[in-house]
Amino acid sequence: MFxxxxxxxxxxxxxxxxxxxxxxxxxxxxxxxxxxSLKFNVFGFFTLELGELGIFNFPIIWHLTTFFASQFxxxxxxxxxxxxxxxxxxxxxxxxxxxxxxxxxxILSKFYTIVFFSLISxxxxxxxxxxxxxxYSSYTEVSIIFRETEFLLAxxxxxxxxxxxxxxxxxxxxxSAFALAFLFILYIIEWIIYGLMMxxxxxxxxxxxxxxxxxxxxxxxxxxxxxxxxxSKFPDKGxxxxxxxxxxxEMLIVLCWTALFIFLSYRLLKKRDL
Length: 274
Hints:
- The chain is mostly helical.
- It has one domain.
- The protein has helices at about 1-15, 15-25, 30-35, 60-70, 75-90, 90-100, 105-135, 140-145, 150-175, 175-200, 205-210, 215-220, 225-235, 250-270; strands at about 40, 45-50.
- The protein has a two-stranded antiparallel sheet with strand order 1-2.
- The longest helix is centred in the middle third of the chain and has 34 residues, at about 105-135.
- The model has no long low-confidence stretch (mean pLDDT about 85).
- It comes from Algibacter mikhailovii.
- GO terms for molecular function: ABC-type transporter activity.
- This is ABC transporter permease.
- It holds the Pfam family ABC2_membrane_2.
- One of its GO terms (cellular component) is plasma membrane.
């Protein structure tokens, strides 16, 4: 495993564009810290500071930061599809196979890289969340601080699943730009199917089925936290309640998609004439 990971990291670090994108991917989550320090002057009457509103209290901080950090995943997605595009354009894929690397090891090297960078990103956002929470939160009990840290696991699985999908599209079309375009096409297809199901079935059944779709299932791992924040400010508003938790069955759905994408990537490479 470490041999394959080291091989892939060497390729990425020798590419200037990849180094820049990886750097940006790891730096952007730190903008959550800036979010916590934002102040708004309300018509000159008073200053509103987000950090003082209680939205960075434990345990909601885990939900808030992982949701915002997951929006930056597209930068490393470019790295993932570029890993495949560069292999074909630079002929390094064929050379690696000639040098003794099996097709299975080739795909595993990509997957190990995805897991490695997803883990690093998760650790970074975990440390950032903990630091912001300890500074702003009015709750200091250990049981409350570490409650809902399952959002970190959901964040990690979400990254691995999304990047595995990018890997599959990269293998399918061999070009970075086309692979990213396929993500947009898949997004549109999912919503078209959802619309057709709403027309034929009812909204509840259509939504339940939609939650099994690749992109939607990844999104559902960490639902938007804004409604939850509103619930905390207006507890008497029952119409604001919704299920915002990070559930194990949702993680399992994404893990199944991840396994399928890696398997399909391997099958494509195995059958393809290089």
